[in-house]
Structures are given as structure tokens and as C-alpha cells.
Amino acid sequence: MSENLIISAHKDTYYTASALLYKTLNNPDILFSEADSFHIDLLEAAKGPWKNIFVVGMRLKNDYADLLLQAVKAIKKDGKKLKIYIIADRFQIVGDAKTEILPYVKKAADGLKLVECINEDIKVSATDFERLNEIYKVLARAEMDKDISNIGGETGNLFVYIRYVIDSYWQWYVGEKGYFEDLIIKLADNTIKPEEMEYAKKTSSSGYSLTGSSKVMKELRERIKVVALYNNTPVMIYGDSGSGKEMVAGMIHERSGRTGEFSPVNCAGLTVELMESTLFGHKKGAFTGATENKMGIIEAADKGTVFLDEITEMPIEVQAKLLRFLEDFKFRSLGSLEVKKADVRILAATNKDIRKEIKDKRFREDLYYRLSGVEFNVPPLKSRKEDYNSIAKVILYRLFNRYNKRIHLTIEEYEILKSYDWPGNFRQMQKFLERVLIFDARGKDFKKLLSDMIGETLDNGCAEDMLPPGKAVSLEVAEKQAIIKALKETNDNKSKAAVIL
User: Fold this and answer.
1) Phi, psi of 61, deg, nearest 5
2) What average pLDDT does the chain have?
3) Rounded to whole angstroms, what are the CA distances from 287 to 273, 274, 283?
4) pTM recorded for the entire structure
């Protein structure tokens, strides 16, 4: 164990800033901490064997100023040295705690100068400083203005590599401490191999991830890695609605090495002709409304993967044609005599008891045996509440990328999330957190919004009253109309509108 400890926030810029520190220290230990639990981690570090503690990028919030001050005093009492490097707007402590903690803080002028402030205290060679500072600035600018179109050369490659490592962590390696340690060491020593860089450039993340460090999720991710490599084997995936069946399918495809597209198809609610046309395509005039030739999903996904969601909803007539296709991967488009062939892997999913569907003659037993080369069960959220924090952080990160608006939940808000079983699973939590972000529903409004969503209070009328009269509209249009009307009725009071919605 080293006498030096780096405590880094979980963020690409802070990994780079930590690499600058790592470059000058003698194999320091590294601890990664979340913004809302930093005071707890620092208290634990105060009890540890380290003589020097370096903090990078933490948000010092007044919410836990007293606990933070306890940690600082414990470090001082034991004769340990503490240095905190943060961006100016991260230092949000006031009063006596601020006076006590301020001597340990080196404030950066703005978000682009954190590495420069670290280097004022701990000198590295000009070459290493310039290299790491350039990477840091590129990452910081990308976060601020999202414009990465002009990033090129070696720095551009490093940007891609760092983002690839972060995506891979949340997709495959959640909770594995050494994953980001390795990134920091490679950035410090400039030892990223060319082949690693090339792989990162060629590998785009699907965006599908089963985050969480619970035992069941670790085992599920490891099983996906193994099964993915047998890239012709069909897979059947079971799980409640919104639990992540499509995520499992997307991750299997991404790890399979197949070069074609990942093509999801929802089998629910389609007629025999539309389902057959969706899968195999059709010729002009094959049925009423077929005004032109159409390529089916299976042909378009050649060399790729077709994911058949809600497979038990597929019409029984189409099930027979799918079974025939799986015999030799040959097919005819609807209305055509031409025989074609497609190299696709078939993944299927259902939230129903497939054996009951077979017993009730709604699903072919022979097709079930053909599709169930390997079977996966995706557990519901309520069975892995220890993963709620990680899931919420991934959702909020994605929402930040969509809306360029970031929020950090408090410890109390995370506890509120854990108080609910989320029967709609990942999809329901995502919808709730999107509303939290849109309406900035924090504190009491956060709890109120969740209570209203789960039906504990139903005193605001029904959804039908919020929609305009007239013909039916799509769910997306109806939702926009409801939001606009709620904001108008509350004079743009977002919190009140959130309660109504």
C-alpha cells in the first residue's frame, strides 16, 4: 500500500487530472468516489494508512459540510496532509466549515484550468503537462459545448479511447475498481497501445447497458459475453416489461462480432400480412396497400442480428414461416417466387410464460425449441435494489447528453427511489427521472412527483381531461399537448405542472 492516496470523482476530465498527479507520485492508491458520498469516503480515508491525500474534482456541498469538516479535522489530527483540487463552482460550502476547509482547497479559475492549478503545486515535465492538459481541455470543451467535430490527431484518438473506456465500464465492468485505475495509469505514462486505440475507434457502443454491481447482474453480463461469441446460436430472453430484454439482446449483438445491423422488431399488434412483410419483405401488389417493393428486416440485417421482441404475440401463421426460415435461412418475400438467403442471428424475447402459451396453442412448440438454443432470465428491478443508484446515474447521464442539463440526486432522493419497487422496471424509472429533470422536481417536489406517478394521490383529475377534444392522437403528441396545457394552467410553474402531469 502506498503512502499516497488519490480520491477522484467519476468523470473523464477528472481521470485526466488524476493522471497528472499519478505521474509525480510513487504508485499511489486510487479511490473513486461519487459526489454525494464523498464525505463518507473521505472519513474512511482519514482512518487509513495514507500520509498524503489528494482530492480531485469533488463537489464540496453544504449538504454534508459538518461530516466533511469531521473528516478534515481527523486528517489534520493524525498529521496527514490533504490537498483538494476542484473547479471554482464546485466549492459550495459557507460559514465556519468554509473557513476550516478553505486552506486545503486549490480553486481553479474555471473548468478549463484544473490541470494547470495542479501543476502549479506538483511539477511534471513540460511534455507530459502539455499532453495531459490538452486532453483535459478537449474533454472539458466537449462537455460544455458538445462540439467535437474539430478534434483530430492524437488528442482526438485519445478522446475516443477515453469515452470508449467509460462506455465499456458502465456496460460491462460496473464496480470493478481496477478498470479506471488502468485508464489513469495509461494516461499518466502514455502507454495506450495503438491496437487498443484502433479497437476503440472501430467499436461504437450500442447504448445498451445492464448496469449495477449486484451479483446477479455481474453473472448476467459474464454470461452474455460467453454466449455472444457463439454468434449463430439463437437466444430466448425472458423478463418483465421494461426489465431490459432488448438491452441483453443489444449487448449480445455488440459482443458477437457480427458486422451487420442490430434490428429490433416488436411482434405485437401486427396482422399476418404486415408481420410477414416486416420480416421477409414484399413485392409490389402482394396485398392491398403494397404500392412498391419493400425489403424485409431479415434481408436488411444480413450478417447482423434480428431481435424479435414479444415473440409470443407473433401470428401463428407467421410462426410457421419463421420456423421454415430457421431450417436453412432461405426465404421468399411476400408475393415473390425468388428464393433468397440471409445470414442472421435470431434473438427472441417475451414477458409471458411461454410454456403456457404453448399449452394454449398460441405458440408453436417446435419453434420454441428452435429459438431456445440458450435462455436468459432478466431479473426485475425490485429484486436488485442495490443497483438503483447506478441505474439512476446512467439514466441521468443519458438525459444530460440529450438535454444538456445535468442534475445530481441527493442521498435522500436515492433513498426515495429505493422505497419503490418500480413495476415498470428500467423504462419506468427512466420516464420518472426524465420528468424530474424537465420540471426540476427536487426535494419535496421529487417525492410528490413520485407519489403522484404511482397513484398514491389521485386528486388532480384524469388524463383524459387534459387532452384536447377531437380525433385520437399518438401518445407522443398527447404527452406534448398535456405538458403544454399543464404549464399554461400553472403560469409556467414547473413544480405544479409536474404534480398535475
Assistant:
1) -100, 150
2) 87
3) 8, 10, 9
4) 0.77
